[in-house]
Specification:
This protein is α/β, with parallel strands linked by helices and 402 residues long. The chain is built from 16 helices and 16 strands. It has two domains: 220 residues, Rossmann fold (3-Layer(aba) Sandwich); 168 residues, Rossmann fold. The strands form three sheets. An eight-stranded mixed beta sheet has the order 3-4-2-1-7-8-9-10, sandwiched between helices. A six-stranded parallel beta sheet has the order 13-12-11-14-15-16, sandwiched between helices. The protein has a two-stranded antiparallel ribbon with strand order 5-6.
Length: 402
């Protein structure tokens, strides 16, 4: 390697980066993408990097479009409209001119586009016009979700849009190796894996609360079957109902505990009057709900990852899931939980019943579950992300690195 290039690489590795992060969801919103993005932004700032955070203005926020934060984050607030069926989220409207003015004045080293909505598309367009290195992220199988909302005919157009979107970026990030292979097979060749971390200090079996379990109507030794996540059609909660019904036939005192909210909650509440609907929870409150359970059921087949699986494992909960996404990455069947093959409902129900009836096995799995995610610290995830950001910056034309 040329000596000048060696020096250039050494300087690049040492310098602090200015990263423009464009996302349509961010804490305090409660969903996997928001929480993961918040963790990564915090990690970038903690490592000495500067972040321009571009996101839609929420209804409770003022009209200012720029807020400077003394903690290493400059917030650029764009216009947004409520996302259909996700009333607490904003769909970011295009902001190409605003971003071009901003980035021409304060040029980021790399633009990271988290979501694929109109705001994300306009950010891609602005970055390309300014010759900025761009990384995109693939978080949500929107093309798969469409069939659960009566618009299955949109599946192919959405897949085509996503392919075009991500191929405009220099690199696309996904959380699992399976998803990397799937995107590459569907015509998105430049894909790298950056997993998601879990806060093992927050999600900890030590947060188990007997008082909370009593509030759920459980006596000591009785079974709490938990599910955490959006209560929505795409989460395949009909299978959760079937699996719990099979458990309750054998263990009448068992209780189903659902943490989360969503458009399917009212119907599920009517069908499962004995279930505990805890609503949306966060922080230590959420961690206590995880840790106070005994078994975690996760029947979804539309996840790109599924943060809740890692959080359940960190909380010492054996998991029953399909062999997919985070569950496939993190669970060795028979050690931290049990996995059914995709679409095998009978197998999923049998696994759920098996663990429900095996308290000794659940206890053994609880220890293995906690140990399995012990090394998924967010710091290592951020280091992997920064390494890829530097690679993209170095591979960009010299005029794009000014």
């Amino acid at each position: 390697m040329d000596a000048d290039l060696v020096c250039q690489e050494i300087v690049s590795r040492a310098m602090a980066l200015r990263v423009a992060v464009v996302t349509e969801t961010y804490p305090p919103e409660i969903n996997g993408v928001a929480m993961s993005t918040g963790r990564l932004v915090d990690g970038l700032v903690a490592a000495g990097h500067r972040v321009d955070l571009i996101r839609p203005r929420q209804p409770q926020e003022g009209r200012a479009w720029f807020e400077e934060d003394t903690e290493g984050i400059d917030r650029v607030l764009s216009r947004g409209i409520p996302l259909p069926r996700y009333a607490n989220l904003q769909l970011g409207l295009p902001a190409r001119k605003l971003l071009m003015r901003r980035w021409a004045h304060q040029r980021p080293d790399v633009v990271q586009v988290v979501t694929e909505g109109p705001l994300g598309w306009s950010a891609l367009t602005a970055a390309r016009k300014l010759h900025l290195p761009v990384i995109s992220e693939f978080h949500t199988n929107f093309h798969s979700y469409s069939q659960h909302y009566g618009v299955g005919w949109l599946k192919r157009p959405i897949a085509a849009y996503l392919r075009k979107f991500h191929n405009r970026a220099d690199l696309t990030l996904v959380p699992t190796r399976d998803l990397q292979r799937a995107l590459q097979a569907h015509g998105i060749p430049r894909v790298e894996v950056v997993s998601r971390g879990v806060d093992t200090r927050l999600f900890d079996p030590a947060r188990r609360s007997e008082a909370l379990r009593r509030n759920w109507g459980l006596a000591p030794g009785e079974l709490a079957v938990c599910h955490v996540g959006r209560i929505a059609p795409e989460k395949n909660l009909a299978l959760l109902e079937k699996a719990f019904a099979a458990i309750q036939q054998r263990l009448p005192a068992a209780r189903l505990v659902l943490v989360g909210s969503g458009p399917a909650a009212e119907g599920l509440r009517a069908r499962c009057p004995g279930a505990v609907f805890a609503g949306s929870r966060s922080g230590e409150d959420l961690a206590a709900h995880y840790a106070s359970g005994d078994l975690f059921l996760f029947p979804s087949l539309t996840e790109t990852y599924g943060n809740v699986v890692a959080e359940a494992l960190a909380s010492g909960l054996p998991v029953v899931a399909y062999r997919d996404a985070a569950a496939k990455e993190l669970i060795t069947p028979g050690q931290e939980g049990l996995l059914a093959e995709a679409g095998d409902e009978a197998g999923f129900i049998a696994h759920a019943l098996s663990l429900a009836l095996s308290p000794e096995l659940r206890q053994t799995m609880a220890l293995a579950a906690r140990a399995r995610v012990a090394d998924l610290a967010w710091q290592s995830i951020v280091e992997r992300l920064v390494s890829l950001q530097r690679q993209v910056i170095l591979s960009a034309p010299l005029f794009a690195r000014r």
